[in-house]
Every structure is written in C-alpha cells, then in structure tokens.
DNA sequence: TAAAACTACGAAAACGATTAAGTAAGCATT
DNA sequence: AATGCTTACTTAATCGTTTTCGTAGTTTTA
C-alpha cells in the first residue's frame, strides 16, 4: 500500500507537504500541489482510514443499532426500507455504515456505547430496538451524536413517522367511506402504538364515532396468528365492526384468512385496512388499503440529521422531524353497508 | 478516553507491559497481569480500534457489497434474510459488518476494491450484485479474502443455494402430484436462473415430461407485472399447463391475480409454485407451495467461510458450499386433473 | 562458581496520517 | 538598509497501539 511517505520520496518533498497538498491546504504552491496530486494518482495512493481516524478522531463511519433479538431487524420490511434509504443518504455524504454489534455471544461483549467508542463512530442511528433497554439509554445519554427513529427522547433528534396524523387520515378515510363501526387491532406497547391508539380514539371522538371497548384489541406487530385470533374475536361479537384496522400490512393477511374461512368477502361483507404500505400490499387482489409510511424520507432525513449533528453540532436544531405518510386507498375498504 | 498510557501511569509499569498483559502474552508475571487487568477494568479502558488496526493491519471488520441500484438490496427479502444471518454469525465471532459504499454520488468515488483497501476490511462478502461488473471483477481478482453468495468464481469460495437440486425437488414434487404439463417462468439471466432452467429441463427429461418451448417464459425476478403478463400468456395457450412455476414467491401473487381474474381457482383449475420461501407465503390462503431456500444457513456459512479465510487462509479449502433448500408443500399445487 | 537459561519487564521504533510551530527566501515598506 | 510580511515549505510531535530487542535479576546447569 502506498503511503504519504512513498509519495514524498518520489516528489522530493516532506510528508507534511504531501498531506497538505492532498488535503488542499492553502500554504502549498499551486505547481507542487498539482505535481503531488498527479503522482499520488499515478501511484494509486489511498489514504489509510485507520491512521486518519486515529489522528483526527473522525471515522466517517456511522453506527446503526438494529437489534434482531426478536428475529426482526433486517427482515422487517419497514425498517429494511428505512435502512436502505439511510444507507444511500450517508453514503452520498461520504460516510460508511456499520452495524453496532449486538451479539451476546461475541467475545468480550461490551455495551453498545463502549462498542461505539471502540469503533469511533462519528454518530449513531438507532431504530427498531427496545428503547427501554438500559444499554440503549446509556447510549442516548452519552455525548455521541444520536438520531433515533420512531421514538422520541428528550433533547435528541428523532425522525418519526407521523402516526398521529397517519391514523387520523386513515380513520377519516374509512369514516368517509361510510363506516361507523371501526375496530382497531393494535400492536404491542411502544410509543408508536400509543400514538396511533390515542389518535384513533381522538379521531373517532371528533367524528362522533362510538368505539366500544371490545373494538380495540391488543395484539402485536407482524404476528399473523395473533391477527387471525383477534379477527375471529371481533367478527364474533354481537355487534361486529364493519371495518378492522390492523397494526401492519402483514397482519392483514391473517385477517383475510379468517374472513375467507368465515365465508365473508372483502370489502363487501367486511372492510380491512393495514398500516405500512409494503410492496406486496398493492399487488394483491383486492389491493390493500393502508397507510403508506414514507420510509424513503424517514431514512434520508435520519441520514441528513445525523450528519448535520456531526458536522455542525452548533447550528443543528434539536427537534423531532415528523414524516407524514399517505393513505393508500386500495380496495379493501369499501362503501359501508349500514 | 483512557489509553494504555493512562493505565501504565497508574500501575507504574510501561505501556508495553500493559499492552502485553491485556493481550495475555506469556512474558508478564501473573500478579502484574491481574493487577493491570483490574485497573484497566476499573478505569473503563477500551482499546482504540483505529490504532489497533493501524498497527496490526487487522480491522475485525467485514465489508459487504450489496448493490441497490435496482432498488433491491436490503428490500429484497431473500438477501435481507441472508444478510441478517451473516450479520449474526460474524458478530458472534467478534467482527463488525460494514457496507461497502456503492454510492455514485459520494465525494471522491473510488472503486469497490479501493474502498475496501481504504477501510482495511479483513474480508468481503458479495451478494446481490451484478457479478459481471468490472469493479466486482477487480475485487474478486484481488488479494482480499472474498466469499460470494449465489455466484461461483474460479478459485474463490462461494456459498450457493442449491438451485439445481431445488428445482429438481420442486418439479419432482409437482410431477408426483400428477402434473405432466408444467410451465416455468424464469427470472432474468443470471447464473442462478441458468441453473434452475437447466435443472428444470433435465428433470423434466428424466421424468419423461415434455416441455414445449411455449411453456418456458423468460420473465424477471420479483416483477409482479411481468408475472401477470406471463401467466396470461401461458393460460391463453391452446394447450395450457396445469402448473406454473414462478421465479420467486412475489411473482406468484401476480399469477394469483390473473388466475382469479380469469375466474379460475388455485389449485383446482391451475396449480402454481413459487421459489424462495418468504414468510408471507406460508400465511396466505391457499398456502403457497414453494421451494424454501435456507437463508439462515447461507448467511451463516458465508460468515464462517469468510472468517476462516481470514484467520486460517492456509487450511481453508477453496470450494463452493452448496446449501440445499426444501420443498415447502403448501396448497397451491394440487392433484392434477388430466 | 562460572556460564547458561529463564523470567519479567522496559525502551524504542513503527504503523500512516495530521498539524502546530519554525524557517528560509522573496518581496514590499519606511 | 533594516524591518516586517508573505509564501512555501520542513521539522517534529502526536494519536494509541504492537512488537522486537534489550537487559536486569534470578534460577538452573555443569
């Protein structure tokens, strides 16, 4: 590997000069600068990131924390999309993206924070984890630049899908389709879920829709079995809902199964709506009505924010970024028959 | 950040001694070793990965190349699963995983190989890319330890899903269900596709099934529109097939749409089979018959292999690792009515 | 008892970069 | 002509490790 020293030898100047020339400092003559750059190019010079990081304390590397204890993480469509967009964004800024090791089996396991320090990540993006984990808290409370996704911490930048507005839009759409008896199967208890649920209740109230307790079922995300169970329960009520909102698009498939089994048809007999906007939803028959979260925007905003936090900490405003989604009016919510 | 020097000051020994004690060298007295380790622990010492890498030329970091030009990559279920498993494996061995920057927008764009050298990755895993890309070739032909996924290069370790056996098993299963007229919509031209196609023809021959040219349609992966088109084409034939094999599970959804539109029923009127074994396939109604690729095993094998290549290059045998899949006999392939 | 061998540690160079401080030469200023 | 200011470099320290080569002191061997 050719180093600054090699170049300096060839050019007959000191390493300092080479370094400065390559980094465009102004105290190097134009002609020398050109010559050095040319030689560096010819010799195939590449800076050594380790040396650079050691000296400058900047790694140009962003750590991402994506726990997969629950076998989620990368296999989770929503987060995979967000991650994909995040990756593109930071890469366009010249940063790389490294996963923060969260294996418990690894030798010398250290906390997330310690791992971040060890690797010298310039910043960290956290998503899809248990935000109440002590180690996550430790990371959040450290001096490392952090952006969280879909969870808000005090004094930290968060990029959040607008679940409040999203649920409001979705329920309003359903209302406008004539439904007055809408059930909601919500996901496991997270701030995302709480926001959606609150918004569900508030919107219903605004629309003067009554929501019997039996219409709100506590399920969990991407759990098709549970979705089936909940659907069965809802449709078995004396006064069943005319529309069911699921915690996510996958869960809808569970709903569809039960509905089919009961000999009912979507959307004629019962309407359903999902949440997320996964690709396959718009290709099935009938096309899924759902709230499409803007994963592209969430990922890219998270990327822009973490880089801004790293590069200009003083002028970066610390406030949540809310990304709105969009009702994707497919065919699974039909005109309500009263 | 506390460094070796700080510890050496506290312990009253030299940095060399501290380094050696912490790394378990044998030329340090037992009691000193214990003392140093304890002090290091108390002071919250963390090695500096950059300094370590600079000195040792080992980064304990694995680069992964996952191109997403085609908006695939992380959003691709199959590869996301593989990646997830790869991540777990390398992390358990104490390695981190970093994406190889493939953004064309980034400042000072360099080739993949140069980026790998710059970051000092100990090894690289390549998947889901255009294997005929010059930059990929450059990387493959370098002295960097490389493992490829689902593509075989001379003298390099590849971890490959057994598409030959997979297609054979799938077609044989379909044959055993009584089908004699089986069509195959294949994906775009890659070595994976060619293997499957060859195996399809060969297996058909072995089973004495005739495959008219019109039964083999060249489509592409995860392209639902194309799958719909191809399905329509196949079902419009004078002598239509009784079963259609799709290039992947997603494409099946396209097939299902067309079939439904034509007023046909799966599997009574027409059978279909996918390939991959994505989660949702086993939850839809009727449950998808497909060939489940063993993504866990593919990812973990790739991880084990790259680490073996890094840590014991001499004794690592350079040969492809073939991972077999499994027919997942759902309900979309029924008994053939002749 | 002198030589050889071990044991336990230290000094110093090195990895490849960055950067503050110094310096020599050339030029303008008074 | 002495001074100061630029310009264009160089020197040398430094980041935090690892590792080779010493070197005292102790123990074993002949």
Structure description:
The structure is a homodimer of 338-residue chains. Chain A is built from 12 helices and 12 strands. The first copy, chain A, has 338 residues and is of the alpha/beta class. Chain A folds into 3 domains: 4-47, lambda repressor-like DNA-binding domains (434 Repressor (Amino-terminal Domain), Orthogonal Bundle), CATH 1.10.260; 61-161 and 296-323, Response regulator (Rossmann fold), CATH 3.40.50; 163-293, Rossmann fold (3-Layer(aba) Sandwich), CATH 3.40.50.2300. In chain A, the strands form 3 sheets. In chain A, strands 2-1-3-4-5-11 form a 6-stranded parallel sheet, covered by helices on one side. Chain A is elongated. At the A-B interface, α4, α5, β2, α6 and α11 of A face α4, α5, β2, α6 and α11 of B. Chain A binds a DNA duplex (30 and 30 nucleotides) through residues 1, 3-5, 13-17, 19-20, 23, 25, 27-29, 32, 47-48, 50-57.
Task: Provide a concise account of the structure shown.
Two copies of one chain form a homodimer. Chain A is α/β, with parallel strands linked by helices.
- Total DSSP E strands of chain A: 12
CATH topology of the largest domain in chain A: Rossmann fold
Q: What oligomeric state do the depicted chains represent? A: homodimer
As a whole number of angstroms, the C-alpha radius of gyration of chain A is 26 Å
Major beta sheet, strand line-up of chain A: 2-1-3-4-5-11
The percent range for helix content of chain A is: 40-55%
- Molecular shape of chain A: elongated
Sequence of secondary-structure elements of chain A: HHHHEHEHEHEEHEHEHEHEEHEE
Quickly count the helices of chain A: 12
CATH class of the largest domain in chain A: Alpha Beta
Strand content of chain A is 5-15%
Low-confidence stretches of chain A: none
Tally of discrete structural domains of chain A: 3
Task: Name the largest protein-protein interface in this structure.
Answer: A-B, 57 and 57 residues
Assigned CATH superfamily of the largest domain in chain A: Response regulator
What is the correct CATH architecture of the largest domain in chain A? 3-Layer(aba) Sandwich
The largest β sheet of chain A comes out as: 6 strands, parallel
Mean pLDDT of chain A: 94
Instruction: Kindly name the structural category of chain A.
Output: alpha/beta
């Amino acid at each position: 590997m050719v180093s600054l020293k090699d170049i300096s030898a060839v050019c007959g100047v000191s390493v300092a000069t080479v370094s400065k020339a390559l980094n465009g400092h102004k105290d190097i003559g134009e002609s020398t600068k050109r010559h050095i750059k040319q030689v560096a190019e010819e010799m195939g010079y590449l800076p050594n990131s380790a040396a650079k990081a050691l000296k400058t304390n900047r790694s140009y590397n962003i750590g991402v924390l994506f726990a997969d204890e629950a076998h989620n993480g990368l296999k989770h469509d929503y987060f995979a999309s967000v991650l994909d967009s995040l990756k593109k964004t930071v890469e366009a800024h010249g940063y790389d993206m490294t996963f923060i090791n969260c294996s418990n089996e690894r030798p010398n396991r250290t906390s997330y924070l310690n791992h971040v320090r060890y690797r010298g990540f310039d910043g960290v993006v956290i998503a899809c984890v248990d935000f109440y984990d002590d180690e996550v808290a430790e990371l959040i409370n450290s001096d490392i630049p952090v952006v969280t996704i879909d969870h808000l911490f005090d004094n930290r930048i968060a990029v959040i899908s607008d679940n409040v507005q999203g649920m409001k839009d979705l329920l309003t759409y359903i209302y406008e389709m004539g439904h007055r008896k809408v059930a909601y199967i919500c996901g496991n208890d997270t701030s995302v879920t709480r926001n959606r649920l609150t918004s569900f209740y508030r919107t219903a109230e605004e629309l003067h829709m009554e929501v019997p307790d039996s219409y709100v079922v506590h399920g969990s995300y991407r759990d098709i079995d549970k979705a089936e169970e909940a659907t069965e329960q809802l449709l078995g009520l004396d006064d069943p809902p005319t529309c069911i909102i699921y915690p996510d698009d996958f869960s809808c498939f569970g709903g569809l199964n039960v509905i089919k089994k009961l000999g009912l048809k979507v959307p004629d007999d019962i309407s359903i709506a999902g949440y997320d906007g996964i690709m396959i939803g718009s290709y099935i028959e009938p096309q899924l009505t759902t709230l499409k979260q803007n994963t592209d925007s969430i990922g890219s905003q998270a990327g822009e924010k973490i880089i801004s936090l790293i590069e200009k900490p003083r002028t970066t405003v610390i406030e949540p970024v809310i990304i709105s989604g969009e009702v994707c009016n497919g065919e699974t919510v039909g005109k309500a028959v009263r």
